[in-house]
Hints:
- Helix content is 27%, strand content 19%.
- It is of the alpha/beta class.
- The protein folds into 2 domains: 5-146 and 319-430, FAD/NAD(P)-binding domain, CATH 3.50.50.60; 161-215 and 253-315, FAD/NAD(P)-binding domain (3-Layer(bba) Sandwich), CATH 3.50.50.60.
- The protein has a 5-stranded parallel β-sheet with strand order 3-2-1-7-20, covered by helices on one side.
- It is globular and about 65 Å long.
Amino acid sequence: MTPEVCIIGAGSSGIAAAKTLHENGIAFNCFEKGSAIGGNWRYGNDNGMSSAYRSLHINTNRDIMAYSDYPMPRDYPMFPHHSQIIQYFDSYVDHFGIRPFIQFQTAVTNVEAEGNGYRVTTKTAEGQTTQRHYKHVLVANGHHWNPRYPTPDFPGTFTGETLHSHYYKTPNQIADKKLLVVGIGNSAVDIACEAARQYGERVTVSTRSGAYIIPNWVFSLPFDSLANPITAKLPLIFQRLLLKSTLLLARGRQVDYGVPVPNRPLLSEHPTISQDILNLSGRGLIRYKPNIREFNGNEVIFTDGTRDTFDMIIYATGYKVTFPFFAPDFINVEATNDLQLYRRVVHPDHPGLYFLGLIQPLGAIMPLAETQSKWVARLVSGACQLPSRLQMVQAIETEEKAVKKRYNGSARHTLQVDFHAYKTSIEREMNTR
């Protein structure tokens, strides 16, 4: 059977798609630039796109992040190390027999519309180029690999070392450095905590707006296990009240530790998950400054007029959504991260083009990518149908208005979804004929 489906990438979303298509009898080719599966979670991945650092642990618990029909081993810690997650992915691929269907060390270099589908160009590590026609293309190349830096550039010149968090791998990179971390997301906080613990030096975090800090554990339970389909149906005001009360009982007021709180209410900013940041901040090992105003040599002047000297700046400022295989005049959203997709999967103007895992939930992407894959499999097989283009565009506009009303207009929040509500919406689409 000639494959009519192309999967780009064999990370956590790509392997879920491969498994789902395989069990539905849909022929496909899956192309992976690197020599192994796992994408961002493979430390030192030879595809050059992994942002994993040596000490990385996942910040969603093992039971929530697992695929629906393949639980994580019970002897794993509740928040596994990246090496354990890769072992789990490898086991998943082998258990369902999909490794033979993945073409490793084969990069997709170009995708363009052709007839009733797409012409896909691939290139092997040896330089062999091949073109194939596919009716459907599933894009699963990840969105945490192309570093985003602050724009516009800060005035002046910083003469110390600079590094994006994407390139941070081990603590020796920051040894004996007076460190400024720009950003207060998960990677920023992990790096700041690691620096404070390893070297006992005071680390400075620069943040424009602060962040709500969510612990990994509360009342001896993984914090993310408290969310469920029932609480997800509550009005947002009650969800905020419930979360605020839980956080107060669990660790008191965040500002009492010296960690700045956003002006926007809970659940209108993507939270930062850390069990350590409040404790280390309370000890004075991590301090906070507002946004950078300008540089003067190794001196940094902040917007509040204060200044300090640093040996190194780490920019933990997120990533650009990038599709290097699309021509810029076809799809290019690097400036905004805002790709207009129906249910965050389907492009209304390009039939047969689907995007998997291009979401930012409070929770794990893996089970949502699995649900997306099941929907796409049903669309490909004809078991369910899409609404009209007009209906899809109207739904996209409605969703975009809701996101802009709830969150600020930064690139960070364009991919935001609520885990349970989003999962339910995709499951509802699967029942549409």
